[in-house]
Amino acid sequence: MSEIEEQKCEAITKIWVCTWNMGAKSHFPTITSEDGTKRVDTSKMNELMNIVPANYDVYVFGVQEGVDDGYFDLLTEYFKPKKVKRFRISLKEDRVEGRGDGSFISSKYTGIGVYFKKDKKNVIQLKRAGAVSAGMMEGSKGAAGIVLKIYGVSIYNCFIYSLLLLLLQYYYYYYYYYYYLLINSSRVPSFNCHKSQITKHTPYPVLGLPAFHLLEQFHHVVWFGDLNYRLEDITGEQVSLFLKKKKIRI
């Protein structure tokens, strides 16, 4: 499809985004048949019918504290009659995995899964996927993201699902941690790095292009997940009131 043809066929694209903290439990375990093969238990598919709508073009699912792929496998079966297919992403690119916080024996992960309507495969493309860990000692905390190209050159969308550290007493670290994930997603060598300093040895970007911040590269950036923010000595209603009075800057 040429660039002109892509622009002519532009239409409204409906995108549905969902997050789930799975609590380090297997909610949709697989069933082992008599011949030893494993398959997803489709008897629980009704649970998805009340949650996941069927009239969207793109579905982006974020998982926190996942321990297996039962959820994504069941979603694949649920979407089959609706002609919705999953983008296949390698395990190294679609999740951050580690132990800790209720999962010491086996690992858990923070990950992302993306599905799309088959009849839109020519105009909805997965261009890049990647994951950034918060560090070896932080378990599954970090971020996993994908870049979608919708209707050719018209729209680039970046979806980032993240599980941030809980830093109650050091709230200013959230800003630093957010930028740590942001920079490592686009692999900017440093805050003050000039384009001319980038060489063939510069790490290949996870989601964006080097020497540019992630927010500068896409038409839309959807950052979702468990940001682990807390309110202390103030209510949600008070925060809303302060925002209306412009006493809080965000």
Task: Lay out the secondary structure.
Blueprint: H1 3-8, E1 15-21, E2 30-32, E3 38-40, H2 46-49, E4 58-66, H3 70-79, E5 84-86, E6 95-98, E7 108-117, E8 124-133, E9 142-150, E10 155-163, H4 172-186, E11 220-226, H5 236-244
Parallel strand pairs: 1-4, 10-11
Antiparallel strand pairs: 2-3, 4-7, 5-7, 6-7, 8-9, 9-10
How does this model look, in words?
The protein is an alpha+beta fold and 250 residues long. It has helices at 3-8, 46-49, 70-79, 172-186, 236-244; strands spanning 15-21, 30-32, 38-40, 58-66, 84-86, 95-98, 108-117, 124-133, 142-150, 155-163, 220-226. The chain has a single domain (3-244), classed as Deoxyribonuclease I, Chain A, CATH 3.60.10. This is Inositol polyphosphate-related phosphatase domain-containing protein.
Query: What kind of sheet is the major sheet?
Result: 5 strands, mixed
Query: How large a portion of the residues is in β-strands, by DSSP E?
Result: 25-35%
CATH topology (level 3) name: Deoxyribonuclease I, Chain A
Runs in which pLDDT lies below 50 for 5 or more consecutive residues are: 166-173, 188-204
CATH top level is Alpha Beta
Shape, principal axes of CA atoms: globular
Q: What series of H and E elements makes up the topology? A: HEEEHEHEEEEEEHEH
Counted by DSSP, the helix tally is 5
As a percent range, the share of helical residues equals 10-25%
Task: Please report the distance between the alpha carbons of the first and last residues.
Answer: 42 Å
**Helix and strand composition category:** alpha+beta
Mean pLDDT over the full residue set: 76
Give Rg in angstroms: 20 Å
**Strand tally:** 11
Number of domains: 1
Do you know the CATH architecture?
A: 4-Layer Sandwich
GO biological process, one term: phosphatidylinositol dephosphorylation
Transmembrane segments: 146-172
Protein name: Inositol polyphosphate-related phosphatase domain-containing protein
Keywords: Membrane, Transmembrane, Transmembrane helix
